[in-house]
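Page 42, continued from yesterday. The earlier attempt failed because a stray header line got pasted into the input along with the sequence. Redoing it now with the clean sequence only.
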Amino acid sequence: MNKYAETFTKGLLKENPTLRLVLGTCPTLAVTTTAFNGLGMGVAATFVLFCSNIAISALRKVIPSKVRLPAYIVVIAAFTTIVQMLVQAYLPAIDKALGIFLPLIVVNCIILGRAEAFASKNPVVLSALDGLGMGFGFTGALVLMGGIRELLGNGTLFGWPEGGLLPPISIFVLPAGGFFVFGMLIWLTNRLSAKHDPTYMPRTELGCAACPHAATCARVSCEKEAE
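This time it went through. C-alpha cells are written below.
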C-alpha cells in the first residue's frame, strides 16, 4: 500500500479518531441521539478538517513556531465560521439540533491535533488525504453510534418509519445509553483492529512470558511452584 492510500485509510479504522484515539468524545456523546445529527456533525467537522489541513500545510513554512497554535486556531476558526453560516442558511434544522457543538468545532481536539501532528509536517496532498480519512472515520463513528442509539432508543433510523421499527428503549437516547454504546463500539473497534494487525497474536499463543504483568501474576507464581 503506497503512502497516499495508507494516509487516507488509517483514519477509517486503525487510527479512527473517535473509536481508537478517543478524541472528540464530547460532541460524539452529545449529538449522536440520532443518525442524522451524527451525519450533520461529521460532515461539518470533515469540511473544517480537510480545509484547515490544506491551509496549515501550505503555510507550514511561513507560520513562526512560537505562535503556531494560535495561528492554527485562527485558521480553524475561519473555516468553522464558514460552515456555521452555511448550515444556518441552508440547514436550519441541523443548526438547531447541533446547537453549541457546531461552533465548538473550532476547539475540537481532532482538528487541532491533526494540524499539529500531521499537517504542519507534511505536504498539501498528504495533509488533504489525512483530513479526509480522519473526517470520514469521525463521521462513520458518529453515524454508527447515532444509528444504534436512535434505533434502540426511538425505534427509527434516520427518522424512518414514523411509527418506529422497534419498541423504544428510552435509556439509549440518554447519556447513560450513549456511554454504553460508545464503550461497546470502542471494544469492537479494538478487536477488529487487532485482528487486522499483522503483528497480532492471540493471548494463548503469546504465553505468560510475554505478559507485562507476569512478574506479579499469581498464576505465573503458582506454575513456577508446581514445577
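Notes: The CA atoms of residues 31 and 98 lie 6 Å apart.
Reminder to self: strip header lines before submitting.
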